[in-house]
Design the sequence.
Protein backbone atom coordinates (compact mmCIF):
# COMPACT_ATOMS: atom_id res chain seq x y z
CA UNK A 1 0.00 0.00 0.00
CA UNK A 2 1.07 3.54 -0.63
CA UNK A 3 -0.89 6.23 1.15
CA UNK A 4 -0.57 9.81 2.25
CA UNK A 5 -2.57 11.90 4.68
CA UNK A 6 -2.35 15.65 5.21
CA UNK A 7 -2.29 15.12 9.00
CA UNK A 8 1.41 14.21 8.69
CA UNK A 9 2.36 17.55 7.13
CA UNK A 10 2.72 19.17 10.55
CA UNK A 11 5.62 16.93 11.64
CA UNK A 12 8.89 18.34 10.29
CA UNK A 13 11.53 15.70 9.80
CA UNK A 14 9.02 12.84 9.80
CA UNK A 15 10.06 9.95 7.58
CA UNK A 16 7.21 7.93 6.10
CA UNK A 17 8.19 4.31 5.57
CA UNK A 18 6.33 1.93 3.30
CA UNK A 19 7.09 -1.80 3.39
CA UNK A 20 5.70 -4.00 0.62
CA UNK A 21 5.57 -7.81 0.48
CA UNK A 22 6.78 -8.33 4.03
CA UNK A 23 5.63 -11.95 4.00
CA UNK A 24 8.06 -12.82 1.18
CA UNK A 25 11.59 -11.61 1.87
CA UNK A 26 12.60 -12.18 -1.76
CA UNK A 27 9.98 -9.64 -2.82
CA UNK A 28 10.13 -7.24 0.13
CA UNK A 29 10.70 -3.60 -0.77
CA UNK A 30 11.05 -0.66 1.58
CA UNK A 31 10.63 2.98 0.67
CA UNK A 32 11.36 5.98 2.88
CA UNK A 33 10.14 9.48 2.03
CA UNK A 34 9.67 12.74 3.83
CA UNK A 35 6.19 14.22 3.72
CA UNK A 36 7.17 16.75 1.01
CA UNK A 37 8.63 13.92 -1.09
CA UNK A 38 5.51 11.79 -0.68
CA UNK A 39 3.33 14.81 -1.46
CA UNK A 40 5.30 15.38 -4.66
CA UNK A 41 4.67 11.76 -5.67
CA UNK A 42 0.95 12.20 -4.89
CA UNK A 43 0.84 15.37 -6.98
CA UNK A 44 2.58 13.66 -9.90
CA UNK A 45 0.06 10.82 -9.68
CA UNK A 46 -2.83 13.32 -9.72
CA UNK A 47 -4.08 12.17 -6.33
CA UNK A 48 -4.23 15.66 -4.85
CA UNK A 49 -6.92 16.46 -7.44
CA UNK A 50 -9.27 13.69 -6.26
CA UNK A 51 -12.38 13.86 -4.09
CA UNK A 52 -10.63 11.67 -1.54
CA UNK A 53 -7.88 14.26 -1.13
CA UNK A 54 -10.26 17.23 -1.14
CA UNK A 55 -12.72 15.74 1.34
CA UNK A 56 -10.54 13.56 3.59
CA UNK A 57 -7.03 14.91 3.03
CA UNK A 58 -5.80 11.47 2.12
CA UNK A 59 -5.31 9.01 -0.71
CA UNK A 60 -4.19 5.40 -0.78
CA UNK A 61 -3.72 2.54 -3.17
CA UNK A 62 -3.18 -1.15 -2.54
CA UNK A 63 -2.30 -1.82 -6.17
CA UNK A 64 0.68 0.31 -7.11
CA UNK A 65 0.85 1.04 -10.83
CA UNK A 66 4.02 0.87 -12.91
CA UNK A 67 4.06 4.66 -12.90
CA UNK A 68 3.91 4.82 -9.10
CA UNK A 69 6.63 2.20 -8.82
CA UNK A 70 8.81 4.24 -11.16
CA UNK A 71 8.26 7.40 -9.09
CA UNK A 72 9.12 5.55 -5.88
CA UNK A 73 12.23 3.81 -7.26
CA UNK A 74 14.60 6.52 -6.08
CA UNK A 75 13.23 6.18 -2.54
CA UNK A 76 13.75 2.41 -2.31
CA UNK A 77 15.95 1.65 0.66
CA UNK A 78 19.05 -0.47 0.98
CA UNK A 79 21.09 -1.08 4.12
CA UNK A 80 23.43 1.74 3.05
CA UNK A 81 20.56 4.13 2.41
CA UNK A 82 18.99 3.33 5.80
CA UNK A 83 22.28 4.16 7.51
CA UNK A 84 22.68 7.39 5.56
CA UNK A 85 19.10 8.47 6.19
CA UNK A 86 19.07 7.97 9.93
CA UNK A 87 22.68 8.53 10.92
CA UNK A 88 23.24 11.69 8.94
CA UNK A 89 26.44 10.10 7.63
CA UNK A 90 27.56 10.55 4.06
CA UNK A 91 28.68 6.94 3.73
Sequence:
Amino acid sequence: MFSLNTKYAKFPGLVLVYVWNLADSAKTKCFALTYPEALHVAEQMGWTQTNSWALQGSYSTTRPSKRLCALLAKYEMTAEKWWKTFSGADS
Remarks:
- DSSP finds four helices and four strands in the chain.
- The chain has a mean pLDDT of 91.
- The beta strands are 2-5, 15-20, 29-34, 58-61.
